[in-house]
């Protein structure tokens, strides 16, 4: 079997050696062994030269240079000779230095700007930073120290001080590093605990940040005291003092570069694979990529760009023709720089617009990785009118100004989803605005992990799917239904939110703060935001809170909502934070997603590609009124660099509404200010206003708009409004005719309300247990619970809706449900006999009622699973329907040994010379799930490695029931005698047969469940 990591492992080993040479410690090592550690001594000399100050301490010398009134640099040369290995690579040219002054305070020299004072204590030399008001920022617990290989700064840690940053820290970063040690340096470890795309910068909740200006690896131990160490015999750090983390990130990125503004297609999903001489997929050619592009179009799936040579040893051909074909399908061409960027100019002239880098072929070490990013970015811009757009798996400080940071070769598992959530949100705290990983990894994966991963990554700015490394390709249409439709739902939502995301991308170029944010960044005073309570969620912009599902489950627990009112994006239900939500119903097609009340979200409705937009396309605003709020839309041509010369526009929407309950809602749409090529001079507008209740009227610039009687009438009307009580707890839809973009206008919803309706708390809630099993072909009871809010609900109707082919019972009706009480109902649901058991199904419970004088609707979406009737008597396992099946190579086989990639291509089952007519042939790692329905008493089989493997397989077998391991075999090889399996099942409902690799060599793990049989009652 193919082992795709072998070449990469060799490359990594070589690179680590090269990196040690290039980025190793500065200075020499004593021939007679390491020198003892030293700490800087007393100041023996002082000199001032404008914004630069020199402090001598014997042979050592420190140098302080002020960059701005809140940014300064401290250097220490133990031997008195300063060096700067980074040169002009990372730190950009800065403006004129600030006015500074100094004074001798007796025990210290005080070096000051209008904003900060750096105290240099004399005996011994030790630094301390204070603000202009005298408050402490940081203080060294002892002076700078060094040995032959490292320099260390030691800082006192504040009682409640929290620490963030250090770049991409896999599995960490969006919560505090306090009490932990983080490594900063390229390690080619792309799993949990690794640190690809490291950045030698950290920030503190005490109001400061530190950037070590070096290519050397760093170690930051945020203990008491804090010790930060770089593997070089020089000290060079920039310090930033600011009132907030955002301000500190802004100062750091002013020094090292603001994040670049991607082209708009760079915010769409991308696809990558090898299409020339692909050893894993057979003979192919670069133009074959157009067939994959056609798959996206035919399945109505967005896709912005394609890397067509992404694979070791993969070349490319027909670049111009391929680029033209992709362009006709509204996609851009990308290429992987396997063999460097020497041909980039010709490639770009032929149509390349995306460059994905690999350190192995760009160069060796940190400097060359950064140089590669900058050179590829510049190469695109020097040879076209496009913006530079690169991806890199390993980078350093400064790479934020030229590329997307990608977290490397990972697998499609629930664990990977879990630890990637804090990884990307945390990287924002180091000025990395665009970080991401492949959808469902490049290895392994499943239909469920694919869509769950795609759902939340649709709320990252950049995303990509990579093919050719796993048993199944990773395009979003590969798994069939319902998975293709789920992928379509989220990719189209990502498309519709492009103006929102693009506005935040433009903000990142000004502030350094990326769109994806940990809660601690927006809620620094929330004591839970920096803790594990918020570890597995993040914000996209300020308005969307995303809480991904990272387990094989249809519910999500532990969703922390910070202060404010939060609205469930799918149901309209409101929550008041701070609060923790447990038991959130999240069927496979539902990403837990909340919107902050007050949000005004710009959208492009109904598109598959940004290129679907025309001069007459509408701009839609999704508005959640509460108090006073606003959003500024940023627009430019989306592709060229003209925006750098001022060719762009902004348009602000301001919303004025009650803080709670009833009242008028006013929406003021400002004039679009600025111009660019292709700007809409006029456009229609659409608004979705989440008020709950219907207003008495809607006026446009004082002119009453017509209330339309239905959703259908609204769609065909040129102007007007419609209240839909059944959509997300009640929304008002408004549309205008085309209006000049250079003129402001206003909408007024008279007698409307803030989110939650005119009577907050009047809404009912409906719940139903998730994970219910519905017997195919038989009516199955489904239970619901309806709870009235602060007002009695009248005329209550409870109904179910399910996919086509499913049958639901008639609605249950109640004349009234008293305020604060709950009614439990039993409805029935029948799955069709041909329903696929492996596929979860989403069912919706809908409650229609009147409360507080208005018609209302509440919905609850939950997951059910169709199951076959329970077996009876003695039944062969290979004759039963399998609820799910995962296999290490190809499919698991019925009554045959494991074959190749097709079904039924194995051989007759044989163990120790004995052949079996019945059984299951698998390849580790394997997992086959059965429905026993509580009627089976035991399971029997003979387990072993099939004779066709001879003596080189090794695996272990296990039987699980309802989540508990009932039996495990010893390690078995091709030489082992078969093991008799006789496991009591104890009335289990679900049974799983697993075969697990035990030696890391999966090439011969053909595990047979020979003669596998369930023994059941009835």
From TrEMBL:
SMART domains: NPCBM
Signal peptide start-end: 1-31
InterPro entries, A to Z: A-galactase_NEW3, DUF5110, Gal_mutarotase_sf_dom, Galactose-bd-like_sf, GH, Glyco_hyd_98_carb-bd, Glyco_hydro_31_C, Glyco_hydro_31_N_dom
Cell inner membrane as UniProt keyword: no
CDD domains: GH31_N
SUPFAM superfamilies for this protein: (Trans)glycosidases, Galactose mutarotase-like, Galactose-binding domain-like, Glycosyl hydrolase domain
Region (Disordered): 887-908
A Pfam match: Glyco_hydro_31_2nd
Domain (Glycosyl hydrolase family 98 putative carbohydrate-binding module) ranges: 871-1016
Keyword tags: Glycosidase, Hydrolase, Signal
Family: Belongs to the glycosyl hydrolase 31 family.
Protein name: NPCBM/NEW2 domain-containing protein
Organism of derivation: Streptomyces decoyicus
């Amino acid at each position: 079997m193919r082992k795709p990591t072998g070449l990469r492992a060799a490359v990594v080993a070589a690179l680590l050696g090269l990196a040690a040479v290039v980025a190793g410690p500065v200075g020499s090592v004593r021939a007679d062994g390491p020198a003892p550690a030293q700490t800087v001594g007393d100041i023996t000399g002082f000199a001032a030269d404008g914004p630069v100050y020199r402090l001598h301490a014997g042979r050592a010398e420190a140098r302080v240079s002020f960059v701005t009134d809140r940014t300064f640099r401290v250097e220490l040369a133990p031997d008195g000779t300063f060096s700067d290995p980074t040169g002009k690579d990372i730190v950009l040219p800065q403006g004129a230095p600030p006015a500074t002054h100094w004074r001798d305070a007796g025990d210290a020299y005080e070096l000051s700007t209008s904003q900060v004072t750096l105290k240099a204590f004399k005996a011994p030399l030790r630094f301390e930073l204070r603000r202009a008001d005298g408050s402490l920022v940081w203080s060294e617990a002892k002076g700078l120290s060094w040995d032959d290989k490292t320099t260390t700064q030691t800082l006192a840690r504040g009682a409640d001080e929290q620490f963030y940053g250090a770049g991409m820290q896999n599995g960490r970063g969006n919560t505090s590093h306090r009490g932990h040690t983080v490594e900063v340096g390229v390690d080619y470890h792309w799993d949990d605990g690794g640190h690809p795309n490291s950045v030698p910068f950290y920030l503190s909740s005490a109001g400061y940040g530190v950037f070590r200006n070096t290519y050397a690896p760093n170690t930051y131990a945020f203990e008491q005291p804090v010790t930060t160490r770089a593997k070089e015999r020089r000290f060079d750090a920039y310090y930033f003092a600011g009132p907030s983390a955002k301000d500190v990130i802004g100062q750091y990125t002013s020094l090292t570069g603001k994040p670049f503004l991607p082209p708009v297609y760079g915010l769409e999903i991308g696809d990558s694979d090898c299409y020339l001489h692909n050893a894993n997929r057979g003979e192919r050619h670069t133009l074959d990529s157009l067939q994959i592009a056609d798959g996206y179009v035919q399945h109505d799936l967005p896709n912005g760009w394609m890397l067509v040579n992404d694979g070791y040893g993969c070349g490319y051909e027909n670049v111009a023709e391929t680029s033209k074909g992709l362009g006709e399908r509204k996609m851009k061409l990308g290429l992987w720089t396997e063999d460097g960027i020497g041909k980039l100019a010709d490639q770009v002239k032929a149509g390349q617009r995306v460059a994905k880098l690999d350190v192995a072929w760009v160069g060796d070490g940190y400097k060359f990785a950064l140089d590669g990013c900058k050179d590829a970015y510049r190469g695109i811009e020097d040879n076209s009118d496009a913006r530079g757009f690169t991806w890199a798996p390993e980078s350093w400080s400064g790479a934020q100004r030229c590329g997307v940071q990608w977290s490397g070769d990972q697998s499609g598992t629930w664990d990977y989803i879990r630890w990637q959530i804090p990884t990307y949100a945390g990287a924002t705290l180091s000025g990395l605005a665009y970080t991401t990983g492949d959808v469902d990894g490049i290895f392994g994966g499943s239909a469920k992990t694919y869509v769950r991963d795609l759902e939340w990554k649709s709320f990252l700015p950049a995303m990509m799917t990579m093919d050719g490394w796993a048993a199944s390709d990773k395009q979003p249409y590969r798994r069939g239904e319902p998975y293709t439709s789920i992928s379509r739902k989220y990719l189209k939502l990502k498309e519709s939110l492009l103006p929102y995301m693009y506005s935040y991308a433009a903000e990142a170029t000004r502030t350094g703060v990326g769109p994806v944010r940990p809660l601690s960044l927006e809620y620094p005073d929330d004591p839970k935001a920096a803790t594990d309570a918020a570890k597995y969620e993040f914000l996209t912009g300020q308005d969307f809170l995303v809480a991904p599902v990272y387990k094989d489950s249809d519910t999500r627990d532990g969703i922390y909502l910070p202060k404010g009112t939060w609205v469930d994006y799918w149901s309209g239900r409101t929550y008041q934070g701070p609060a923790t939500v447990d038991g959130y119903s999240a069927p496979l097609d539902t990403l837990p997603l909340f919107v902050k009340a007050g949000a005004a979200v710009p959208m492009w409705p109904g598109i598959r590609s940004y290129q679907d937009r025309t001069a007459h396309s509408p701009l839609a605003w999704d508005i959640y009124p509460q108090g006073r709020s606003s959003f500024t839309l940023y627009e430019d041509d989306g592709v060229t660099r003209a925006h750098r010369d001022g060719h762009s526009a902004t348009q602000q929407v301001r919303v004025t509404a009650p803080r709670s309950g009833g009242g008028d809602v006013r929406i003021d749409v400002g004039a679009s200010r600025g111009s660019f090529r292709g700007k809409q001079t006029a456009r229609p507008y659409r608004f979705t206003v989440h008020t709950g209740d219907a207003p008495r009227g809607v006026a446009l610039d004082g002119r009453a708009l017509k209330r339309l009687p239905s959703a259908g009438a609204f769609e065909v009307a040129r102007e007007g409004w419609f209240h839909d009580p059944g959509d997300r707890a009640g929304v008002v839809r408004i549309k205008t005719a085309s209006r000049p973009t250079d003129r402001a206008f206003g909408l007024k919803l008279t007698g409307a309300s803030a989110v939650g309706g005119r009577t907050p708390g009047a809404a009912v809630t409906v719940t139903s247990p998730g994970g219910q099993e519905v017997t195919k072909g038989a009516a199955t009871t489904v239970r619901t619970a309806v709870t009235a809010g602060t007002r009695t609900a009248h005329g209550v109707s409870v109904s179910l809706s399910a996919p086509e082919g499913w049958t639901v019972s008639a609605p249950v009706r109640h004349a009234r449900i008293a305020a604060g009480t709950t009614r439990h109902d039993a409805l029935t649901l029948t799955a069709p006999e041909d329903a696929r058991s492996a596929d979860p199904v989403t069912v919706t419970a809908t409650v229609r009622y009147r409360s507080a004088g208005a018609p209302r609707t509440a919905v609850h979406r939950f997951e059910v699973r169709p199951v076959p009737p329970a077996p009876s008597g003695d039944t062969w396992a290979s004759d039963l329907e399998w609820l799910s099946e995962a296999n290490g190579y190809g499919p698991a086989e019925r009554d045959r040994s494991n074959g190749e990639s097709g079904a039924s291509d194995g051989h007759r089952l044989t163990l120790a010379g004995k052949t079996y007519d019945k059984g299951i042939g698998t390849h580790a790692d394997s997992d086959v799930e059965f429905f026993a329905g509580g009627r089976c008493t035991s399971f029997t089989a003979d387990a072993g490695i099939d004779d066709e493997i001879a003596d080189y397989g090794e695996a272990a077998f296990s039987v699980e029931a309802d989540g508990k391991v009932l039996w495990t075999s010893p390690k078995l090889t091709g030489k082992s005698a078969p093991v008799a399996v006789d496991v009591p099942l104890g009335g289990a409902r679900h049974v799983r047969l697993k075969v697990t690799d035990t030696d890391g060599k999966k090439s011969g793990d053909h595990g047979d469940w020979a003669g596998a049989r369930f023994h059941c009652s009835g």
